[in-house]
Amino acid sequence: MNLKAFIRDIDNFPQEGVIFKDITPLLADAKAMQYTLDRLLEMVGDVKIDKVVGMESRGFFFAPLLAQRLNAGFIPVRKPGKLPAEKTSQTYDLEYGTDTLEIHSDAILTGEKILVHDDVLATGGTAKATCDLIKRLGGEIVQCNFLIELDFLKGRSKLGETDVKALLNY
């Protein structure tokens, strides 16, 4: 199946000069979604995963499905003010300014094997901040797993020695 046929380019969104990779056509097609989930799982292989961490918000589409199929828990990483219990925060740099991500402080136990999933790896800031949170809580990142990687932005370079896999590359 040609998954790129289900990815729509939106020019100048969310700002001028950006070509946004819209995955909603893929999400609207049951066969494309199932095919995508199966391919994302193949990228993980037979490695034991204890928790799947998904980033707000588009990482929430496939991360819980991956967790369910891997017999693992799902952990959301959110923007500030969205999680109700004690949190651990990580601030990171954006092109113009900073942003912050949060995770529940009790979400990951020391030594747990973690799969990180998001829809797109772009500049790598969100993925690196998420990995930093996981490491601070004692988790061991097995893989960072993405639906799409925008190669020209070189986001994987921020993830060091972490195993990074993407289903589609642009």
TrEMBL record:
Keywords: Cytoplasm, Glycosyltransferase, Purine salvage, Transferase. This is Adenine phosphoribosyltransferase. It is an enzyme of class 2 (transferase). It comes from Zobellia barbeyronii. The keyword Transferase applies. It catalyses: AMP + diphosphate = 5-phospho-alpha-D-ribose 1-diphosphate + adenine. Catalyzes a salvage reaction resulting in the formation of AMP, that is energically less costly than de novo synthesis. It is found in: Cytoplasm. Homodimer. Belongs to the purine/pyrimidine phosphoribosyltransferase family. The lineage of its organism: Bacteria, Pseudomonadati, Bacteroidota, Flavobacteriia, Flavobacteriales. Its EC number is 2.4.2.7. Residues 45-148 form the Phosphoribosyltransferase domain. SUPFAM superfamilies: PRTase-like. GO terms for molecular function: adenine phosphoribosyltransferase activity. It holds the Pfam family Pribosyltran. Pathway: Purine metabolism; AMP biosynthesis via salvage pathway; AMP from adenine: step 1/1.
